[in-house]
Request: fold
Amino acid sequence: MATIGIEEAREEVAGLFLAYMGRAPEYQAMSYYVGRLQTLAAEQGDGDDALDHAYLALSAEIYVSAQANGEIPSEVNSTNNEYVTWIYENVLGRAPDEEGLEYWVTQLDNGTFGREDLLAVIIRSVQDQDPGSRDAMFFSNRLEVALEFAKFENSNPHILPTLGTNAAQILAGVNEDPASVDAALELLYSATGGGQSFNLTIGVDNLVGTSGDDTFTALPVNASNSQPATTLGRFDSIDGGAGRDTLNIVTDEDGNNAVQQGSVKNIEVVNIYNNGSIFANTDGVVDASKFVGVEEIWQHNDATIVANVGDDVTVGFRDIEKVLGGEEFGIAVAGVLTAENTTATTIAFDNFGTTLDTGEDGPDIGLRVGVAIAAGESLNEVNLTGSLGGAEGEAAWLVFGAVTGSETETFTLNTEIDTVLLAALGENVTTIDASGSTGDLIYIHGLLDALDALGEDGSVTDQLAGALGAMLGDYMDTPSDLGDYRPAFIGGAGDDIIIAADVRLTDSIDGGEGDNSLVLLTQEEEFQTENYDALDGLQNIQNLALLVTAEDFTLDATRLTGFEGLAISSLSGSFVEVQGLAADQALVLANPIALLEDASGVLGLEALLNFPSYMELQLTDAAADVTLGIDGSIYVNAWAGEEDDETETYTGVGATGGTLTVVGGVAVPATEDGQAPSVFQYSNDSSKFSTIDVSDYQGYFDLFDMSATVAETVTLGEGSEDSIFIVVGDGEETLSSSTFGLMDVIEDFDAAEDDLYVDTELDFSLFTFTGTPGSLNAAFSAAAAADASSTGIVLFQFDGDTYLYHNSTGGGYDTDDFAIKLVGLFSLDDLDLAAPV
Reply:
């Protein structure tokens, strides 16, 4: 089996790139094609010409790729003469001489070589010339620059966007003059910081860097034979010297380079590429103290805990993507354990997190979650920087927790990433200060109380302590006495969400800047004065959201006027009474997942997405005008006031004659992710509202018990499917829900989507006028005179609108006769009138 060393393979690949594309290969392209050439060589067997055949095969592969990308002359749109001329210009930087042109065109014409072979053959011809000849020097000089550009430190994917010179520009002006090489390399080194490149070997390496920005690379391969091997050895010594130097450590599936060993100092940036095995010491962690003088430690592809992290050291996690669900069970976790006297640490992220796989039939959660833990005896500040990445439109949250020693009282979190802050556990932590954060925060206040509520005798907290102890190992002790852990909290500049089981008078919660919300997971049936006073003590919390678990819950909205937004959700189909809702207090009725918004997936509640919640809402002593928002898949049955069953009268209706406005909701039909439409049902039997506006609501809307004592105007919307239930009375014992004297008006009725249900046994018929009535009263007079209006219900049209009318009293039209107006023109067939089911 033929083999080719890495250095020789790099030269072959760079030469083909120069000849075909007129540019140097970037690091990733070089890595790929070196691997391809090694594979092709192995496939050629052991013959003397095996490597030559492999070289020609690679040339053919690149030819096909370049042809497809339009980077070389087309076979169908260029002559052999033109193709040879192009090769001379690309490979030698000059026009062909007459003799050479004729020779190579003849070789193509008679089929000695194909176009995919010719370029490689010409390169070989140039390399066989006198090294001092013009053509040989032109090609070798450009090859030298291309090889330098293709090195990791000069063109890896992280440096390319900011390099300032690309693979073609670096070769501009490089010719047979050695000075042109120096100029190109100076340009490259000025862009990348100068310095030299060092590759570790399987032997003992004692490497000392230059004053420039050097790069040291430990690849898991023996350069002499291309076989897998460990190159970062126990007795290796690496000293970066001056400049900002980088050490790249690459592991493989066989565990090569997976053991942290050797001596490393004066290296500012350490990149660890975990490819199938994870780089760590014998304790299973990366010991930062063994990288003397390090400023950044980055783990790529996979990661373990980084321990003994000192001051001014950034620990980074890059390109670590896991999948949870289906056949995969991976969670992206970033762990940092600081050194004994380290007070602050920075954790950086670049494309990091776990996505949820719910299967083909499951909902598209659209969420990326990363987990990060920082711990240290003296740790009192953590900075979270970078980005978790993810697909466009995908929410990304970092779940973060910290453990600190007994000396820390105030723990500071500065995060530019949207973060779920579980806790900063320490025996004496009294304040969590996130005022320097710019990302959105979800903070769980009173975490240990919530955990203890899940188990018996604090069992869940004990399990948490055990898990932390296993993670911390010998690096620090788990806090043993957390007591009543409810530290003060100060939010940052983002839109923060504080989640709590309760709020106490002794709690200190400041949302900071932004539009901030408190989500209260309440088990109470009714708030006491102390509860409201505790809520009054919150600072910079604009919105209050209540997740109700009790069967019955009463809320006094007059005590909550300090909040700009008020939302209620139920997990158990609760009956909720809201008292004293003011006109400027918009009340949102929400599905739990909508209530918790981005926190739902992070907290494991995404399963609620496809299941609409249910709530009964009673408005008591509300203002004349009320606005209700519907958020998510929820079924709401609402009314105003409380009915006395004996007298059939209402108390607690509050001011009347105003408008009920309903907005939001989930449209019909169900969304692509399976989210069910909203349903909002309202009964106006208490005569609370004279106007009901659902024009900005989406979902199903049912209007029951329209009042017989109020002329109601109902405005429907395009995004909803509406059902209106009407009663036709007999004029004596039963009152009609809409009468001539108090005529209801229905606006924006869509006969194709909406339904009008009429509670009557009367027949319907169309009434047409013999002439054109001069007024609406004249139209009703003519309809009342028709026998069909006395024995049934007639539909007539006047002045562009449609009316239903029944003469229940006989003679001319009367105040108590049934009458209702639909804005617009409709026929009996359009309305498809039916009795309610």
Q: What stands out?
A: The CA atoms of residues 497 and 597 lie 10 Å apart. Confidence is low (pLDDT under 50) at residues 598-609. Residues 196-304 form one domain. The longest strand covers residues 344-356.
